[in-house]
Amino acid sequence: MTIQVRSPLHDQESIEIPAAVANLSKPFNGSVSSGKGDEYSIKNNIIDLINVEKSYTLAQSTNHWKITASVYEDLWRKRSLTLLTGEDFPIEKEKELLLEWVKPRAGGVYMDVGCSTALYSRLLKKAEPKSVQVAIDFSKAMLLEARLKAEADETDIYFIRADAREMPFFANTFDGVVMGGTLNELTDELKVLFECHRVLKENGNMFMMHLIKADHWAGRLLQESAEWGGIKFWTVDESNELFARAGFVAEEQITKGIVCFSKLKSI
Ligand SMILES: C[S@@+](CC[C@H](N)C(=O)[O-])C[C@H]1O[C@@H](n2cnc3c(N)ncnc32)[C@H](O)[C@@H]1O
User: What is the set of domains in the chain, with CATH numbers?
Assistant: First the structure.
């Protein structure tokens, strides 16, 4: 299935992305353009829709390093929830919750925002091979690593380099939006949540996993040092207030340690 993206320069213009771009077993190189002539490159199946680079926080900059991208999933992501929830929390457990709340369906279109190595997109695609998965990130290094992992897993995914603050999609595009751990790293988190709300279909929902403020002094001390690098933390109430400002309400919510899982729907 082809997908339509919105031109980053001309917001009325659509750009059609050929289905072959998501077929990761065959390298795709080329370009796409809108009717107004603005052109975007596709290298190794990754569509680059960023034409003006913005500045990054320290935490965001590290995600642009090849070394971070190559070790992120195996060294950190697979263990992180066990460390942060304080209980045995393998990826399998997170996957159960993801699939139960998102319920990917054949023909449904889903987006992973700030995908890093696109763990969520791969899990959704494996669960429903006839769904369409779109994974966005502004880090080239992360997208390259995500592409390698998805090809190895035989999960075809559209990889788009884009800024989540200005999503290159039209309103009501996605049946589901997923965000794993990205909220804490964003600058302009409200703007990104507004964008998620805009591109989500009326009956769609958003799966959110984010970190909340620790209630123990030692945890807070650690979080305060992370805040220097641009990472933000909220209490559950503050998080829900943020979601509400963007037009979401938590239909379901589970908190374990400093990890909060929410199933958000539009108000
Ligand atoms: C914590 S990692 C995400 C982890 C991933 N979702 C997972 O479940 O393993 C945050 C990612 O968000 C990306 N990111 C941060 N701000 C962004 C923005 N404004 N637009 C696109 N990507 C962004 C970073 O490059 C990084 O790869």
Answer: 52-266 (3.40.50.150)
